[in-house]
Amino acid sequence: MTLGRILIADDHPLINEGIQIALRVHQPGYVVDVAGSIADAEVLIQQHNDYRLLLLDYELPDSNGFNGFFKLQHLLGRVPIAIISAHDSKQILSAARAVGASGFISKRQPLDAIVAAISMVLRGGSFFPPVDDGADEAEQLRKRIDSLSNAQRRVLMALAHGDLNKQIAAELGVTEATIKAHLSAIFRKLGVTNRTQAILMVRPLTGAMP
Q1: Which of 57, 91, 123 is the last residue of a domain?
Q2: Is the dihedral angle over the CA atoms 162, 143, 56, 5 positive or is it negative?
Q3: 129 domain-assigned
Q4: Which residues pair with 175 in a beta bridge?
Q5: 166 and 114: one domain?
Q6: Which of 89, 123, 157 is the last residue of a domain?
Q7: Would you give the distance in Å from CA 30 to the centre of its chain?
Q8: pLDDT in tens, 82-139
Q9: Cα-Cα-Cα-Cα dihedral sign, residues 125, 126, 132, 136
Q10: What is the distance between the terminal CA atoms of the chain, rounded to a whole angstrom?
């Protein structure tokens, strides 16, 4: 009997293979699945209801910054998501905390360290490398993002990518009036008054990072 499944959403074969082999040795009770895109991950999540962890490369071609994170978070509910990335700037780390990730794991670490971080998240903990600056700002942004519903998060990310209300409505399968209502709630929760201010606030989440 297995303990559940772990999903790796990453399009780098060598990274996937290394993590899979290490998990089979150190976490033999879990089945490990691999997806090369957000779309593939969505299919697997809809097929299986026993995922215990998602390891997500937020730079997948169809992720659009953290928009892919929000899509998969909506499907997974309370299942922890750990970001894995070769880029570990303070800005990205702060953004990962803000959106509610359970961890941030740098691909530049030794494989043993990566597996140790994964094990920590599987046990219900969190793992983030220490960040000296910007902790307060990240925490404030995290609280504001937490106050948004899943639909509002997706609207916000689409807004940040320059989509019009009509485009966002089509993507979510709702009316433009619903999108306007979401935007009003988003502005209120973020403490801003217009689209430009909202976009500037969440710029670290859009993937447009140095």
Answers
A1: 123
A2: negative
A3: no
A4: none
A5: no
A6: 123
A7: 22
A8: 999 887 777 788 888 888 899 999 888 888 889 999 999 999 999 998 765 555 666 6
A9: negative
A10: 45
Amino acid 2 reads T
**Residue 110 to residues 75, 107, 117, 167, 187, Cα–Cα distance (Å):** 31, 8, 11, 43, 42
Any idea what the CATH number is for the domain that residue 28 is in? Answer: 3.40.50.2300
Task: Clarify whether residues 155 and 87 are in a common domain.
Answer: no
pLDDT band at 206 (very low <50, low <70, confident <90, very high): low
The percent of the chain in helix, strand and coil, each rounded to the nearest 5, is 55, 15, 35
Tell me whether residue 121 is exposed, middle or buried, using C-beta atoms within 10 angstroms of its C-beta: 0 to 12, 13 to 18, 19 or more. Answer: buried
Domain containing residue 45:
4-123
Backbone angles phi, psi at 106, to 5 degrees: -80, 130
Q: Are residues 108 and 179 in the same domain?
A: no
For residue 12, tell me if it sits in a domain. Answer: yes
Q: Are residues 23 and 54 in the same domain?
A: yes
Amino acid letter for position 116: A
